[in-house]
Design brief:
This protein is of the alpha+beta class. The chain contains seven helices and four strands, in the order H-H-E-H-E-H-E-E-H-H-H. Strands 2-1-3-4 form a four-stranded mixed sheet.
Length: 221
């Protein structure tokens, strides 16, 4: 009697598997809510079957992650920007402020961030401002082409992400002049403060790199 029950169970098990694997009967809307699992613990069930949800989930997550990163990257370059921030991506202290503004800008999309240390930086696309000039102090470019520097640049940038109150007091004299003077000292010594070589050495290193690369795009990879 027990043997007959086992035989019937095996036949039923095989019919279930065949109905799932048969292309003619395969339908997405027929999937059970949970993966089909047939235990090996009982002698009547010698076959184990599971849907390959693991690889599908991995591919799905990888695809979503790639799309998310692309959207984040595109969010750093808004099409309808109102001000462009030229920043030194090799300056660790500067990047703290840049990252804060970039995070705030996700809700506004008004700032376009341009890294002057990038091999892709083009003075022609940024009102003719070359690397050496922008390394001297903070520069920002308004959407109408107006170039602003020093504390005024910070004030304009902060205003675009809802933090105008931080530098609002610098609109008034003599406070504006005093703050500009303090910033000028920081700008003059920021390379030493952040443990980087003098500007002249940086410029020479970039020149040698450009000469070695020539027109090759391999240095920009």
């Amino acid at each position: 009697m027990a043997l007959r029950v086992c035989n019937l169970a095996r036949q039923r098990n095989q019919l279930v598997i065949n109905s799932i694997t048969n292309p003619l009967s395969f339908r997405f809307h027929q999937f059970p809510s949970r993966p089909l699992q047939l235990s090996r613990s009982h002698p009547c069930f010698q076959t184990e079957f599971r849907y390959p949800t693991g690889p599908i989930r991995a591919v799905h997550e990888a695809t979503v992650d790639a799309i998310t990163k692309k959207k984040e990257s595109e969010g750093n370059l808004p099409e309808n920007w109102k001000i462009k921030m030229l920043y030194d991506g090799d300056c660790p202290l500067c990047m703290r402020e840049v990252n804060m503004l970039r995070e705030r800008n996700k809700s506004y999309g008004t700032i376009k961030f341009v890294d002057i240390s990038s091999d892709e930086y083009s003075p022609e696309d940024n009102q003719g401002l070359d690397y050496k000039t922008v390394m001297g102090r903070i520069h920002a470019i308004l959407s109408d082409g107006t170039v602003v520097t020093d504390v005024e640049a910070f004030r304009k940038l902060y205003e675009q992400v809802g933090l105008g109150w931080v530098y609002a007091i610098t609109k008034y004299e003599p406070i504006g002049t005093i703050v500009d003077a303090i910033y000028g000292v920081w700008a003059k010594y920021r390379l030493q403060i952040t443990g980087r070589p003098p500007l002249q050495e940086i410029l020479e290193a970039r020149k040698k790199k450009d000469e070695a690369c020539g027109d090759s795009s391999s240095c920009k990879m």
